[in-house]
Amino acid sequence: MVELDFQIPSAIDPFAEAKDSSGTKAKVHIRVQQRNGKKCLTTVQGLPKDFSYERILKDVKKDFCCNGNVVNDKELGKVIQLQGDQRKNVQAFLVRSNLATKDQIQIHGF
Question: 0.85 exceeded by the pTM?
Answer without folding.
Answer: no
